[in-house]
Amino acid sequence: MAVLLVAVVIGAATYYYVFSPVVVEGIIDHKGVTGVKDGTSYTILLNADWGIRVKDEDYEKFFSDEDRNAFINKSLEDTMKTEYSEINYLVSIRVSSEDPVNNLEKGETLAYFVSRDDFNTLRIGDEVKYEVERFQTATIKRLLEVTPINEE
Predict the structure, then answer these.
(1) What does R_g of the chain's alpha carbons equal in angstroms?
(2) Residue 145 and residue 127: Cα distance in Å, rounded?
(3) What's the CA gap between 105 and 88, in Å, rounded?
(4) Would you kindly state where each structural domain of the chain is located, as residue ranges?
């Protein structure tokens, strides 16, 4: 009986560890879009509090000097996919809580992979609460709460 009880407790603890969500909080520091071509990753654009810097000249026409938050619609993504085999959206977050999945302590910053929709939702300076993917390094599984702190 005791062996069965120990097995149940170990099984429950393992189940909890593997399937319980890991929630992290932080502030959006900067954003970026990269593309993969011939096995090499290239920065297409960077977005920080100073605005948007387009690194691939082919895409400068899609952004103006007044733009403060990069937004990538489906049409622009499709255009990028004609040149790059893969498009990655990254959002760098300075965490205000620990992220044990990615070994981050409060105050550290990490660039997380996000979906295009989440990339478009998040703005520089926003406070964000999100769930990280347990089995994929530096990946946001789901946004839980976004609080804008930098109104334009």
Answers:
(1) 19
(2) 8
(3) 25
(4) 22-147
pTM of the model: 0.85
Give the Cα separation of 23 and 141 in Å (integer). Answer: 10
Token digits of residue 56: 């691939």
- What is the pairing mode between strands 86-95 and 140-147? unpaired
Query: Tens-digit pLDDT profile for the chain (152 aa)?
Result: 766 666 555 655 555 555 678 999 999 999 999 999 999 999 999 999 999 999 999 999 999 888 889 999 999 999 999 999 999 999 999 999 999 999 999 999 999 999 999 999 999 999 999 999 888 899 999 999 999 975 55
Question: Distance (Å, rounded) from C-alpha 108 to C-alpha 103?
Answer: 10
Coil, helix or strand at residue 48? strand
Q: How far apart are CA 26 and CA 96, in angstroms?
A: 5
The alpha carbon of 30 is separated from its chain's Cα centroid by a whole number of angstroms, namely: 10
Nearest residue to 115 via CA among 77, 79, 147: 77
Helix (H) or strand (E) holding 122: none
CB 75 within 8 Å of CB 116: no
Residue owning tokens 């900067």: 30
How far apart are the C-alpha atoms of 124 and 26, rounded to whole Å? Answer: 11
